[in-house]
Write a structure and sequence with these properties.
It is built from one helix and six strands; from the N terminus they run βαβββββ. By secondary structure, the protein is an alpha+beta fold. It has a domain of about 60 residues: 2-Layer Sandwich (Signal recognition particle alu RNA binding heterodimer, srp9/1), CATH 3.30.720. The strands form two sheets. The protein has a four-stranded mixed β-sheet with strand order 1-4-3-2, covered by helices on one side. The radius of gyration is 16 Å and the shape is globular.
């Protein structure tokens, strides 16, 4: 019997934000990444993928759009629905948001 196939698993962090376009610009500047979405696509105001080369770094999604139950209304979110995100960058100290 051979070794079982090893799955490659990578986190796909998604953060709910009030303003996807502004948040995307801020994270792009901070992390030195680029948007993986078409800038003219109307969905870009609701969702964006930030990439470093071909690697997904972060996803941004607006609160209250597209009927996602875990992203519906920021006003109804509880303290337990928050999280701490830490990103390590090779050129500087870890960045916390």
């Amino acid at each position: 019997m051979g070794q079982p196939t090893r799955l490659s698993v990578r986190p796909q962090t998604l953060i709910a934000v009030r303003d996807v376009k502004a948040s995307s610009a801020w994270y792009q500047t901070l992390l030195g990444v680029s948007s993986g979405c078409d800038p003219d696509h109307p969905h870009r105001l609701v969702y964006d993928r930030l990439l470093s080369g071909d690697t997904l770094v972060l996803q941004l999604h607006s609160w209250d759009d597209e009927e996602h139950p875990n992203l519906s209304t920021q006003l109804r979110s509880t303290e337990r629905s928050g999280s701490r995100t830490q990103m390590a960058m090779s050129s500087s100290s870890p960045v916390q948001t």
